[in-house]
Structures are given as C-alpha cells and as structure tokens.
Amino acid sequence: MAVTLPIRLRRLLGGAALAAVAMVSATLVTAGSAAAQELRLLMIEQVGCVYCAAFNRDIAPAYEVSPEGQAAPLIRADLRGPLPEGVTLASRPFVTPTFILLGPDGVEVGRLTGFPGQDFFWPYVNEMIDRARTQPNG
C-alpha cells in the first residue's frame, strides 16, 4: 500500500519521519488487515458544512495513515442521503459532522456528534475504538 500525504504534511514530517510513518502504516495494514475490516468510522457530512471542511483539511489526511484509521477505516455518507448498506444506527444523525463507530456487524457502537477540533477528536476516537474492542461483540 502506497502512503500519499499532502505536501504540507510531508514538509512538516521531513524525510526520516515520513519514512517511519510509511513503514508503520504498512506494518499496521499487513498485521492488522483483519482488524481493520472489523470496525469502521462512518462520517456523516453535508455540502457547505464548515466543520466537515475543517475535518477534511486538518484531520482526514492524517487519519487515513494513523493507527486509528487502520483500526477503523473512514467511510462517508451524506446527512440527507442513504446510509451505507448493512449499517444500523441507534438514531439518525442530525448534526454534521457526526462520527459513528460501527462494529463488525455494521451496528453503531460509539458516536461523536460534531467536530470540536483535533485535541478532542483523537482521544475520543481512541476511546471509542478501545471500548469497542473490549466489548464482547466488538
């Protein structure tokens, strides 16, 4: 799997750090490919959502190659559109963005409503993933 990062992120990381990210990413994909298919993070978004744009600009590129992104790959759906096939939610989202952690069976196991910035996003997503992994059905 080739790792492609935005130019800004490549400059920030530098050569050695970028190689390390690529190596860790490839290791996680190889070692955790079965686990990566178990959980998914569903992002509910809509056109014109400034918080969705902030997430897409500031977090999405790094999420894809992060341990969290490998454990729960990001999938997307429009707020007013159909949900991906096989997805069962506790309730229909009404705020964008909404991030919903889906278990292996497509059932919601965690939710983050809104995007409060990266300082809150990463720890909360980590907590949802850890909780899902320790649940009997997660």
Can you put this structure into words, describing what you see?
This protein is of the alpha+beta class and 138 residues long. It contains 6 helices and 4 strands, in the order ααβαααβββα. Strands 2-1-3-4 form a 4-stranded mixed β-sheet. A hairpin with a 5-residue loop joins strand 3 (98-102) and strand 4. The longest helix is centred in the first third of the chain and has 25 residues, at 7-31. The protein is globular and about 40 Å long. The two termini are 26 Å apart. Mean pLDDT is 81; it is low at 1-10 and 15-36.
Mean pLDDT reading: 81
Strand order of the largest sheet: 2-1-3-4
From the helix content, strand content and strand pairing, which structural class follows? alpha+beta
Series of secondary-structure elements, N-terminal to C-terminal:
HHEHHHEEEH
Major sheet summary line? 4 strands, mixed
Distance between the termini: 26 Å
Range of strand content: 15-25%
Low-confidence stretches: 1-10, 15-36
The gyration radius over C-alpha positions equals 15 Å
Fraction in helix = 40-55%
User: What is the global morphology?
Assistant: globular
Number of strands: 4
